[in-house]
Each structure stands twice: as C-alpha cells, then as structure tokens.
C-alpha cells in the first residue's frame, strides 16, 4: 500500500525501481533513475526525470546493453516452483495459481523453469527456429483512441502533438506491397490508428488494393479494435464483416490490441478501448470464418503476475474451443516515450527475468494447444533473443521492414533484419534456421507475381501523406 507507507514524492521513484511483484528490480543498474527519450510531450502535470546516461543495464527496446545471463546457468528449483514443475513433467496442466507461482521464480529457479519449457519446445517442434519475410505497413498514425501507453498515435495536425499526423493512400500502400514482394516478402502486416474519417469499407478497400497488385501476398492485418470499429461503423455483425474482409483478401489477424486481457488493467491503460470480452469475441468470430490469429501480451507497465495468469487462462480457454491461435507473442512494454511512463504512472518495462519467464511460462501453459512461441527481436534485441530461444521459444518473427510502432515508443533495435541477422542469432545455438510462411509452412522461395498497375496518380487523394485538420479530416 504505497499511499500508506510512502510519501507522495517517493511513489514514482519506488515504482520505477520495482518489478511486477513490487520487489526491487534485479537487472544490474536498475536501482538508478532511468533516462527518458523525451519530456516535451509528457502530458499535463508530468515532471520527467532525465539522467545523463541510461542507467539500467538492459530494458526492453534499449540497444546499449545486453541483458544479464540467465541461461545457461545453474538451475535448481524447490518449494512451490518445484512442485509445479514436477506436475508439468507428469503432464499436468497449470492453472491460474500455478502460473503465478512460475512467474515468481528467482535465482536458480529461473533456468529450472526455462529447462522444462525448452524440453516441451523440443517435444513439440524440434530444433528448428523459424522466421518470416514480412513488411509492416502502418497506414495512419491518427487515432481517436487515447491508449496511455502508445507513443505512435498522433492527434490532429492543428494540435501539433508528438509529430506530424499522416495517412497513406491506397496507391502508396500498393507501392510498399510491390516493393516488399520484390524483396522476397511473403507477408504484409497492416496496422494503424483508428482514423475518425474511416468507415468499415476502408479496411476492405485496403485488402482489395493489395490483392490487385500482389494476389499471392499473405495479408495479416487489422487488430480486434479495427475489426470491431469497422463492423460498428457499418452496422454489421462481426461475422458478416469478417467474411467481407476475408473475401477482400484478408488471410489472418494479429493479436495486438490485447495489451493485458484483464479489465482491471485495461481500465487504466486503455479505458476507451475494447474490453477483454470484446477482444476474445472478435478472435472467436475470426476463427469461426477460417481466419487464424495469434495471442500477444504487452507486459511490464502497471500490471501484476495475477493479471498475466488471467490473460493466459482466458486465451487458452478460447484456444480449446477454436484452435485458431497459431502462436504466443510476448511484447515487453517499451517505456522511454510512452505517455504513461512519462507521467510517472508506470514501470520502466519488465525485467529480463520477467521477459524470459513470460516466454517460458507461455510454452508450459499452452502445451498441446499452441506450438509456436515467438520472441520479439525489435523489443528484446539479439542477445536477449538467444537466451529466450533456450527457454521455450522457437520463432524469431519477421524481418519487419519499416517497423514504426515500437520505435515510436523508444525501441532502438532498428526497423528491419535480414536472413543473415537471424542466422547470427541461431548459429551459436547449433539449431536449424528455416524461413516459414505466416501459417508456419516452409516458404518455397518462389517470387510472387507483381502487377505494376497501382492507383492512378491523377486521383486527387493519392498523395504520399495526407495532413488532417482538427477533426481528423483531410485538408
């Protein structure tokens, strides 16, 4: 109870040095104040503390330091953690309390949890590590929602908040898809803000525009928030709208917009966004029409291990019904330019111990239901990814040409990797690297058919960037 035991002036300094259990962070250097990326956009009442140097040895999104070595190291479990791991090895499913117990692992218990997770990984998918050649397309950064963690979305141009707002045209999206195909990509991922001028047909038009120029490109796009908003603005049911998206060319949905699927957390992080039940309902509907999706979790801001456990158990329950989730993707909170951190109301992201455990515990909890555990190199970095690949993970995600959202929050790991970068991560582990498709089939390496016909340049709306006014309308 910080209000009872701490002076108000000490609330943030203690929070900033705490992990999700309220204990001191165990990353070396984390007892020092953290440097933030910017303070001019912190919001009303924010007083940002800026140090001369980044003081933590490792944090999500930071590229200056490698994480502490947790694996390989001496492993030993006892007490409650050992009891849970013994049950896992006997084939038992972990429940909410067991998941919380595994998240509490410290010291030699951490590699013990990782070893069990990695054994399950070997049993499930063998020694292959996969990656997909893809491109991110963030079609607008204008958003009517006010998620307190987001450093990417911008307000209308007249408000001049956090940079220039933009919206890509259909022609510009087509050009990026064509370029991606010529570079060998098999997938494009589409995400963006909820622009006030969008109706639900916009997302369908995007799908059709992409299909017109690269028919074989796998279109992985639109969060549950975008789908729900699109259906709502057209007055259609989720199933009806998803069927129209699928007919337009959509192949699968990302799991983003999940953040933490616990409304106690969502009421603070994203109070005007969709609820936990709405996110689950959207993905259930997507699976019912043949669109697969994945499960993400954004962790390390304000939540506790019990919230992580609730997230896992709720999504696992849906997976038992539908079988439509293809992977588990933990996404560490990147704090440096996040409004809620700059307002001194969140932690500086997860510790590396928590990050590694999120992947390992996910492998254990989803055993027999989800085969693939992905590590986000853009948030964790290559050295961290190596350790997590020894803790149950088997996938490195995508090349992510033009990754913007993590970078807007302060991530420093670059906007894209190539196959040789992935090989440098995998070779020291003596495992096999394989390029995959979005659906985890082996990529055949054949070039895609590309049309040179894009939206007409004579179209007056076909400009590279479209500024918007205070109402979000094109000007």
Structure, described:
With 475 residues, this protein is α/β, with parallel strands linked by helices. It has a single domain (8-475), classed as TIM Barrel (Alpha-Beta Barrel). The chain has helices spanning 2-5, 11-16, 79-89, 96-103, 109-125, 170-182, 200-213, 224-234, 238-248, 263-269, 276-288, 305-322, 339-342, 352-365, 377-380, 382-388, 405-408, 419-426, and strands at 128-132, 134-138, 187-191, 218-221, 250-253, 292-299, 325-332, 372-373, 395-398, 432-436. The protein has a 7-stranded parallel beta sheet. A 3-stranded parallel beta sheet has the order 9-1-10, with helices on one face. Strand 6, helix 12 (305-322) and strand 7 form a beta-alpha-beta unit. Helix 4 crosses helix 12 and helix 8 packs across helix 9 (238-248). The termini are far apart. 52% of the residues are buried.
Key structural traits:
TIM Barrel; 475 residues
N→C terminal distance: 50 Å
Radius of gyration: 22 Å
Which structural class matches the secondary elements? alpha/beta
Report strand %: 5-15%
Q: Helical proportion?
A: 25-40%
- Strand order, biggest sheet? 2-3-4-5-6-7-8
- Shape-level CATH architecture: Alpha-Beta Barrel
* CATH C-level label: Alpha Beta
Shape assignment: globular
Number of domains: 1
What is the ordering of alpha helices and beta strands? HHHHHEEHEHEHHEHHEHEHHEHHEHHE
Mean pLDDT value: 85
Q: Which runs of at least 5 residues are low in confidence (pLDDT < 50)?
A: 36-55, 153-162, 403-413, 456-475
Number of DSSP E strands: 10
**Number of helices in the DSSP assignment:** 18
CATH superfamily: Aldolase class I
**What is the CATH third-level topology name?**
TIM Barrel
Taking the sheet with the most strands, its summary is: 7 strands, parallel
